[in-house]
């Protein structure tokens, strides 16, 4: 897991370069001297010193003011929560009243055999709190199905890791109405994905100065994101289908299979779901790779620690980008295939169509 997380950090740096020059250090020191810590006490300034030097005092203050609600406490969730607690968010509330089972122990590194039968959320929160006493870490009684718009307005970010792709549409719509940024993801076996809907998001990117050598200048940008429901309605042309990962089409197939446990062989129910998916996406028959689909089906009920570390590391990085307003977030899907060790960023939805282009970025991990 540590190696996978390290690989994520190394490869992510290929796309987002942070330059800390003597001029930047001087500016940061001047800000601290002029404005004080502005909400960060001396102990926090020491604790988050490396982060402040990386993305600046203002970004760290925004992180310290952020309130996050997370649904689900399995491998992907705790990987993200760990990173956010260490980064120093103000509040992280975790909702998962399910009881710990032996199958949870594979990728959820906070759980032990002795804790089987206890609530996943309660056990996870206690251990997350130990990572950073300055963060308000607590369990939440809110649920994906019953949470209200008013309750969501207490938070800046909602992260959903406990529903399927399609089942997250209603929660995403509530978040949009509450003006709350929304993330959703899952891990199954060697595969994982996440989606983000930031509604309207403003951020700052840094680029090399054309005037002063080795200095950077800041540039403000903004972008609008489609909802999950809007993205799922996207029709795929042949060109777009070829550039999308098979995992996305398999996720759509999975949403149409109601049998539990999932079929282990390609049967009539699976075939009907494949044909319905191809029809709804506007793609020709045979577009869904049957062998790939069955690999996904076989992995659906499990999480691997290494895959959780990779996808969770990248997802946590995306959340940090959004709350700090530093650097451009992904638009708007990320899929990971452990067999090829590749992650793909791709955009779907009406905002993507307005751009009149297909964005697809392959990341070797």
How many DSSP H or I helices? 16
Series of H and E elements: HHHHHEHEHEHEHEEEEHHHHHHEEHE
Tell me, briefly, the overall form.
globular
Quaternary organization:
single chain
Strand content: 15-25%
Uncertain residue segments: 1-36, 353-358
Extended strand count: 11
Mean pLDDT across residues: 85
**Percent range of helical residues:** 40-55%
In short:
With 365 residues, the chain is α/β, with parallel strands linked by helices. It is 42% helix and 18% strand.
Describe this structure in words.
The protein has 365 residues and is of the alpha/beta class. Helix content is 42%, strand content 18%. The chain has 16 helices and 11 strands. A 9-stranded mixed sheet has the order 3-2-1-4-5-6-9-10-11, sandwiched between helices. It has a two-stranded antiparallel ribbon with strand order 7-8. β9 (333-337) and β10 form a beta hairpin. α4 (49-55) crosses α5 and α12 packs across α13 (268-281). The model is unreliable at 1-36 and 353-358 (pLDDT under 50).
């Amino acid at each position: 897991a540590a190696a996978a997380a390290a690989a994520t950090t190394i490869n992510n740096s290929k796309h987002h370069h942070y330059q800390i020059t003597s001029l930047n250090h001087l500016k940061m020191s001047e800000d601290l001297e002029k404005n004080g810590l502005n909400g960060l006490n001396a102990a926090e300034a020491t604790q988050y010193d490396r982060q402040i030097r990386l993305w600046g005092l203002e970004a760290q203050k925004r992180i310290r003011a952020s309130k996050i609600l997370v649904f689900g406490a399995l491998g992907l969730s705790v990987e993200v929560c760990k990173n956010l607690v260490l980064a120093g968010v103000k509040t992280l509330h975790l909702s998962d009243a399910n009881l710990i089972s032996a199958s949870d122990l594979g990728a959820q590194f906070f759980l032990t055999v002795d804790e089987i039968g206890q609530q996943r959320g309660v056990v996870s929160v206690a251990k997350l709190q130990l990572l950073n006493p300055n963060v308000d870490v607590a369990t939440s009684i809110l649920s994906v199905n019953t949470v209200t718009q008013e309750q969501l307005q207490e938070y800046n970010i909602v992260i959903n890791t406990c529903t399927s792709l399609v089942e997250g549409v209603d929660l995403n719509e509530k978040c949009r109405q509450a003006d709350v940024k929304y993330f959703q993801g899952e891990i199954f076996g060697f595969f994982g994905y996440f989606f983000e809907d930031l509604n309207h998001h403003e951020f700052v990117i840094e680029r090399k100065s054309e005037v002063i050598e080795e200095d950077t200048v800041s540039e403000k940008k903004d972008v609008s994101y489609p909802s999950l429901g809007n993205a799922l309605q996207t029709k795929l042309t042949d060109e777009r289908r070829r550039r999308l990962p098979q995992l996305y089409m398999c996720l759509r197939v999975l949403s149409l299979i109601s049998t539990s446990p999932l079929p282990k062989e390609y049967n009539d129910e699976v075939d009907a779901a494949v044909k319905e998916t191809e029809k709804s996406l506007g793609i020709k028959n045979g577009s869904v790779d049957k062998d790939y689909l069955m690999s996904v089906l076989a992995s659906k009920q499990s999480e691997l620690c290494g895959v959780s570390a990779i996808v969770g590391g990248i997802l946590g990085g995306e959340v940090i980008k959004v709350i700090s307003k530093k650097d451009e977030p992904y638009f708007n899907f990320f899929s990971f295939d452990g067999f090829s060790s590749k992650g793909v960023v791709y955009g779907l939805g009406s905002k993507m169509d307005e751009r009149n282009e297909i964005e697809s970025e392959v990341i070797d991990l």
